[in-house]
Amino acid sequence: MKQQLLGMATALLVTGSAVASAATTQTEVNETLRNTPEIYNGLFTAALIKHVVDTCPNVSPPGRLARVNYFLTLYNRARNMGYSRSQIEAFVEDKQEQARLEGIVKAHLQREGVEPEDEASVCAYASAQIAERSALGRQLRER
Questions:
Q1: Element (H or E) spanning 60, and its range?
Q2: What are phi and psi of 135, to 5 degrees?
Q3: Are 142 and 127 in contact (CB under 8 A)?
């Protein structure tokens, strides 16, 4: 299920044109994108929403158009940094990056007093975020 989020991001990344930066290794690309707050925070938010939606059956994600626009904005930011479609795609598909981001999401939830694998705990968190109209809550919908 968590692969669906990354799959969607990858599908969106495929829409760009390739302008490869031969002098930059994929490790350097990954490090730069990981350390670019606008991009990595965006991926974190998307991963957090995905985790909440996958764990709590009574919560829906933002609509499809909103998701497409969101990922396209992140993609364009990375493209504007000079990275090619294939470099961005490799970053998004990197299993270590996916595991790292999943760990960050779970640690965030734990800091918020939420047990990441407990449906009731995640659903209560989601409902509270929706009620507060927090940045996260504004992107979620209760079914």
A1: strand 59-60
A2: -55, -40
A3: yes
What DSSP string describes 104-125? HHHHHHHHTT--TT-HHHHHHH
CA distance 139 to 130: 8
**Angle of CA points 67, 72, 74, to nearest 5°:** 100
Encode pLDDT of 76-121 as tens digits.
Answer: 999 999 999 999 999 999 999 999 999 999 999 999 999 999 999 9
Question: Quick check: 18 pLDDT over 70?
Answer: no
Q: Which amino acid type is present at position 75?
A: Y
Nearby residues of 57 by Cβ (< 8 Å), 6 or more positions away: 119, 143
Q: What is the pLDDT of residues 46-64, one digit of tens each?
A: 999 999 999 999 999 999 9
CB distance 12 to 75 below 8 Å: yes
Instruction: Report which of 133, 131, 104, 127 is spatially closest to residue 116, judged by C-alpha positions.
Output: 104
d(C-alpha 80, C-alpha 60), whole Å? 31
DSSP codes joined into one string, 3-23: HHHHHHHHHHHTTSPP---TT
